Amino acid sequence: MSVGLPEGVDVSAHNRTPTLTGLSFVFVRASYGLAKDLRYDQHAAAVRRAGLPLGAYCFGRAISGKDQADRLLEIAPDADLHVLDREADEGHPTMSASQAYEFIAALERVGKLSVLYASESGYPADAFGADLRWIANWSRMPKIPWTFWQYRGTGLDRDRFNGTVEQLHALIGWTPIGSEDPLTNLVPLMAHRVVDLPAGTVLEKTPGGDPYTPLPVAITLGLLGATATHYHVADGDYGVYVPRALATVRTQDKNVGA
Fold it and tell me: Is the pLDDT of residue 28 over 50?
């Protein structure tokens, strides 16, 4: 049964920004090949104001996969999920499998949580190496494993997450704004995703709040969660914050607890 699963939508320049009340996540088209979607900034800002996880996707074209992934990261560096949308490109060749592998590999090299969107009928068994699967089937629930399901593709595209809201947040390392104490003693904890911080970065006690002394050297800290503007990271026995723009997130198992 899919009723009751967290609901989301996906939008592009073809859509006005919809009402986001009642949604748990939103995917926004950031690029078509190397071209920026004209409404990405508008849509993405609305998602952040609503305090929702943001997925940014590239409609893949039959050109360099790496170049397209790099362009997606340039447009949407702070998105919580980075997605390749591989489907028929009307009037143009469809992105090849080798280009799709190249795209996903480029995301993985910089530690981004990667997602592949495609129809169930043409979905590759290995998802081209993507971490998560976003599958389109407008007539029934997919019969193959899925993380996100696009169940409606007419009017406003509708999607569901295969789990609970809490599981979605844990999967992407997301913490809703205002839902946590920023200075919480940690029990021993193994982080699967970490944050690289350059020398000079100023850690904050609360998002945008009182600063600590700037870091004298570059360090790597465990990722505990996120707000719309900051990452929540493990610093010794406490959690502190750093602006998203100053940090690089990647995958690495690391003990971040006391």
Answer: yes
